[in-house]
Amino acid sequence: GAGVSQSPSNKVTEKGKDVELRCDPISGHTALYWYRQRLGQGLEFLIYFQGNSAPDKSGLPSDRFSAERTGESVSTLTIQRTQQEDSAVYLCASSLGTGLGVEQYFGPGTRLTVT
Amino acid sequence: GDSVTQMEGPVTLSEEAFLTINCTYTATGYPSLFWYVQYPGEGLQLLLKATKADDKGSNKGFEATYRKETTSFHLEKGSVQVSDSAVYFCALFSGGYNKLIFGAGTRLAVHP
């Protein structure tokens, strides 16, 4: 079946502009995560959605970052007034529920470059 | 807070060599442990996992054992192939945080 998809695959934007990144999780997966991977580094957690519960936003680095998810479907990550340090690969993952041992399936990522 | 530390790369090996990539963790409670792999130009994939102490995860010839006493989850493979060249990430999932916490990644390059 279809995996996690993300769009766009690449995005180049000017400093100060807003960007919106999209994630389509695997159908039926109730949990959805956003991570950021800076060049040569591991993944940093940004935000987590589980069903209709309030999202865990504890990883968002600043109030310029926000994310939404409608029910158990598509999620969008928005970065306002982009800065050069926002340049990274943004990865989305989904899982069938949550808990110890539950596998997260990752999308291919969106590579964001802020010039 | 919870954290994962893995050996820095790059690791460069000849084909058929033995591989070890060290991973240690700090966590409250009893996390699940994972190794993810990122092949060139591809997305992150789960390689193996272990959910409790002394469990051994294995896949594609790779193994890792959850060692609670040493808080480690080292990745091993007896004979690497060129196709194993990738970046390997150790990660833990702590139920208290509901997220994966990743190490910085270790790049492996295998030469014929």
Describe the structure.
The complex is a heterodimer of chains A (115) and B (112). Chain A is an all-beta fold. Chain A is built from no helices and ten strands. In chain A, strands 2, 4, 5, 8, 9 and 10 form a six-stranded mixed beta sheet that branches. In chain A, strands 1-3-7-6 form a four-stranded antiparallel beta sheet, with no helix packed on it. Chain B is mostly beta strands and 112 residues long. Chain B contains no helices and twelve strands. In chain B, strand 10 and strand 11 form a beta hairpin. Chain B is globular, with a radius of gyration of 13 Å. The chains are: A mainly beta (115), B mainly beta (112). Chains A and B meet through strand 5 and strand 9 of A and strand 6, strand 10 and strand 11 of B.
Indicate the topology.
The complex is a heterodimer of chains A (115) and B (112).
Chain A (H helix, E strand, L loop, with lengths): L4 E3 L2 E4 L5 E6 L6 E7 L5 E8 L14 E5 L5 E5 L8 E8 L9 E2 L3 E5 L1
Parallel strand pairs in A: 2-10
Antiparallel strand pairs in A: 1-3, 3-7, 4-5, 4-8, 6-7, 8-9, 8-10
Chain B lengths: L2 E4 L4 E4 L4 E3 L1 E4 L5 E7 L5 E7 L5 E4 L2 E4 L9 E3 L8 E9 L4 E4 L3 E6 L1
Parallel strand pairs in B: 2-12
Antiparallel strand pairs in B: 1-4, 3-9, 5-6, 5-10, 7-8, 8-9, 10-11, 10-12
Radius of gyration of chain B (CA) equals: 13 Å
Strand content of chain A: over 45%
Tell me the span between the first and last alpha carbons of chain A. 37 Å
Tally of contiguous helical segments of chain B = 0
Our measurement of the CA-to-CA distance between the termini of chain B, rounded to an integer number of angstroms, reads 41 Å
By DSSP, the count of extended strands of chain A is 10
Total count of strands of chain B: 12
**Strand pairing plus helix content of chain A: what structural class?**
mainly beta
Number of helices of chain A: 0
H/E order of the elements of chain A?
EEEEEEEEEE
The major sheet of chain A is characterized as: 6 strands, mixed
Mean residue pLDDT of chain B: 93
* Structural class by secondary-structure content of chain B: mainly beta
- Sheet having the most strands of chain B: 6 strands, mixed
